[in-house]
Amino acid sequence: MALALLSVAYSSLTVAATGTWSLPADVAPSSRHVGSISVLQNFASNLAGIFTPILIGVLVDQTGSFVAPLAVIGAVSLVGAANYLFIMGKIEPLKVKEAEVTAA
Q1: How far is CA 92 from CA 5, 8, 53, 66, in A?
Q2: N or C: which end of the chain has fewer CB within 10 A?
Q3: Which distant-in-sequence residues (6+ apart) come within 8 Å of 38 by Cβ?
Q4: CA–CA gap between residue 17 and residue 25 (Å, rounded)
């Protein structure tokens, strides 16, 4: 059962990632900004990849089980889903001053 649920979770993650990785091209004010926005997105993702194993290790060490880490990860996932549903607005190019776009 755990393997089946992990497979469904990872499949869902890869489907969601396709939409997430297309966002920099959708919100960049010009084609010159796509790389910079992608770098910021990748940096934030890698920070989560660095701190999540540390947090899980600390929680398992403190509690002696994986229940607390799974609960924390589940809560973070629900907050992220709520962010996409209720907070994030319409996807449209970022607005910048005309001088900034031509200078870049």
Answers
A1: 34, 31, 34, 40
A2: N
A3: 21, 24
A4: 14
Q: Which amino acid is at 66?
A: F
* Alpha-carbon span 71 to 50, nearest angstrom: 19
Query: pTM of the entire structure?
Result: 0.64
**pLDDT tens digits, one per residue of 11-70:** 998 998 888 888 898 888 888 889 999 999 899 889 999 999 999 999 999 999 999 999
Other residues' Cβ atoms within 10 Å of the Cβ of residue 37: 17
How many residues does this entry show for the chain? 104
Query: What percent of the residues of the chain are helix, what percent strand, and what percent coil, each to the nearest 5?
Result: 85, 0, 15
Place of tokens 């001088």: 99
28 contacts 37 by C-beta, under 8 angstroms: yes
